[in-house]
Amino acid sequence: MNQAELHRNLATDLLKSVKKADKNALFQQRLTANLTLIQDLFFALYPESQHRKTFTKLLAKLPSLFDGRPEVLKLRDLEKMREGNWYLSEQMVGMQLYVDHFNKDLKGLKDKLPYLQELGINFLHLMPITTRPEKENDGGYAVNGYTQIDTRFGTKKDLAALTKKMREEGMYLMLDFVVNHTSDEYPWAVKAQKGSKKFQDFYYTYPDRILPDEFELSLPEVFPETSPGNFTFNEEMGKWVMTVFNHYQWDLNYSNPEVFLAMLENLVKLANLGVDVVRFDALAFLWKKLETISQNLPEAHQLISLFRLCLQVVAPGVILLAEAIVPPKEIMKYFGEGMYRGNECEIAYNATFMALLWNSIATRETVMMRKSLEDLQDRPESSTWINYVRCHDDIGLGFDDRFIYDMGWNPGPHRRFLLDYFCQRLDWSPSKGQIFMHNPKTGDGRITGSASSLLGLEKALEDEDTDAIKTSVSKIIMLHGLVLSYGGIPMIYAGDELGALNDYNYLKEEAKKQDSRWVNRPWHHWPTIEKELGKKNGIVAGIYAQLKHLITLRKAFPCLADHNNLDLLDIGNEHVFAFERRGMESCGIIVLANFQDTAQAIDSTFLKNLGYTKKGCLQDVIKGEKTKLNSGLLEIQPYELLWYKQY
Length: 647
Ligand code: GLC
Known about the structure:
39% of the residues lie in helices and 16% in strands. The chain is of the alpha/beta class. Helix 2 packs antiparallel against helix 3 (48-67) and helix 15 (351-363) runs antiparallel to helix 16. The protein is globular and about 75 Å long. The two termini are 34 Å apart. Residues 138-139, 141, 178, 245, 281-282, 323, 392-393 line the site of alpha-D-glucopyranose.
């Protein structure tokens, strides 16, 4: 039982009438229930002998943070507590978008909520909307203020109007908490540059290269092309500062407990904007230690749990998403381990599944995907994934090498093949991706490009090749159909619902042209969209309609809620990926997807054994018809997606 469930149980009586519930009493109850764990974590990170006083400060801070939480959100917290693990529901369907790329600003977004609802979206991840440096700012991931809204998006009032409307419509909001670093223009960084010792200690600053050089011996590089090395010399301060990401993103020094306290306050203020899910950005990097890669360290996990348990006391309705794009086994740890199982992040990006989908597209086989995913089944029951095809970042090839070897392949050449396949280095590949952060020292690289361009639509349109267009559309739908049915919250990347292609305009902008991730950050041009959606047999309208159909279906099947009810199936065909979402009272769904460009005949006995046939027929829910199994073999077309329902 995780702490959230414990709170729920303790509060059962008080929560009977949420409106009348004594919010302060419930706060005290949560504080009491979490306090020992909070204390334990705090002193594990910050030894009691030196940091008793800071701990006392934390104790005083929690009630004052609770006092500052708006009443309407306190009420919402209690509603969510009563509801239980609301984020596991099959009704959850997300979209990630850039507010300005989508419809100008926050007001524009509010106007377009009906478009999103029409598609079936009830959960939004808005890319950073807070203040950032004028020039390079990593798409807002260089933070000048954690809760100040950048004027290009509107005002705090606009955001409040949006969140109010979203709450009324039963929609959920996710915003980023860039927890690992601030920009070099953030007030703390500015004070540090002006010579404040106190604020220099908020970052990792060094008078010379001795420690930076020692760190460099083991630290990898995140952006080796544009921001090589992990330290930047700041002239004004006359010191080196740790900058693991870009030179203008300063890593926060969490070995200083004052940083934790100040960031906890920023976190709560962010939550107070009406956020339901906080995306903990780059959280794997939170703790730094010499002689390590300074990622996924045990202290980072303790720190995240500490944030988790404090936030839960103040705002129990707000949950955390781990943005940990790290090896599969490491991702799992962000759900919490040991006595902290279920007490770290409720959600994590299923970056492994995402990368494996692309791996299967290139290799046309699915065994590696099945085996790798089997290894990731043991999650706390309160946890879930965000499943996605594309996001604003690059696609990293962070597979577990064991499973590449298992296939009889070699990890190095295999990864190079994937880069070649997706990044226009193979004549026969339909893909139009770009290579990102190629590291000549290691040969590593990642992939950028929109889903549709990576799946061949851009090339097919250029070649006016009708068959290739059809194939790429099938691939687009198949991948989305998989993330819509796999256990977790599907997160559709804005533009993908319309088959958006690569956007090369970033090359014209000085502050963006070095970062090819901008190629997959498309703009919604509404007059064109309206025109395209009006064309009954058009490509865009087709993609949109099929996706909408799948979303509607997802919401109609309670077995697609995430109750750890997923069985990966080995059906004896390496090209067909298969899984069952077990349902209560025999209403499960079996999902099949053919990654090969030829039709596959599969033995249907397993469907019969699992109870999916009646009088020799299967119930195909996507087509809404029965499929007669004449010979016992089931044919699945190239890149076809099938959902069969138990009946
Ligand atoms: C996350 C974001 C990415 C950003 C990085 C640094 O990985 O997704 O876009 O560059 O954090 O903040």
